[in-house]
Specification:
By secondary structure, the chain is mainly alpha-helical. The protein has one domain (about 1-145). Helices cover about 95% and strands about 0% of the residues. The chain has helices spanning about 1-110, 115-145. Helix 1 packs antiparallel against helix 2 (about 115-145). The longest helix is centred in the middle third of the chain and has 111 residues, at about 1-110. The protein is rod-shaped, with a radius of gyration of 49 Å.
Length: about 150
């Protein structure tokens, strides 16, 4: 009987101490879980801050790219305008040289008497037409220079 009581006492004490350890483990696991939740909240906050910084940097990069694109566009516009001005000046000079050549041809023809009145009239019409073209080109040139 003593042995059986002793065995029962040992079993009950083992069971009691075993449950006591499990309760401690449950409390420890709850504490660990709460600690992990706190760490996760901190990590989440840090991640949000990093995300905000990344978005801010991306926004600044897009803004800088937009400004650079605007500068490039203005530069192209100025280059195009300078090219148009140079082209108009070249066209005016070319027309003026044509007029001089036609006038010298007309003067030579008149002095030698080899030019017919019809041919003289055609040359004068060409000269007048070129002078009108020069006047228009000069107007366009002044407008272009004002834009510059």
């Amino acid at each position: 009987m003593k042995n059986s009581l002793l065995i029962i006492a040992v079993i009950l004490s083992a069971h009691y101490f075993g449950n006591a350890q499990e309760t401690q483990q449950v409390k420890d696991s709850i504490a660990i879980t709460q600690q992990k939740v706190k760490e996760d909240k901190l990590n989440l906050k840090e991640d949000k801050d990093q995300l905000k910084q990344i978005e801010k940097a991306e926004k600044e990069r897009r803004k800088a790219a937009k400004a650079q694109k605007k500068i490039d566009k203005e530069l192209k516009k100025k280059e195009k305008l300078a090219k148009a001005i140079a082209s108009k000046k070249k066209g005016v000079k070319k027309s003026e040289t044509k007029i001089r050549k036609l006038q010298s041809k007309l003067a030579k023809g008149k002095s030698k008497g080899k030019i017919s009145p019809v041919k003289e009239m055609e040359i004068n019409q060409k000269i007048n037409k070129l002078e009108l073209a020069i006047a228009k080109d000069k107007e366009k040139l002044t407008k272009l220079e004002q834009r510059q």
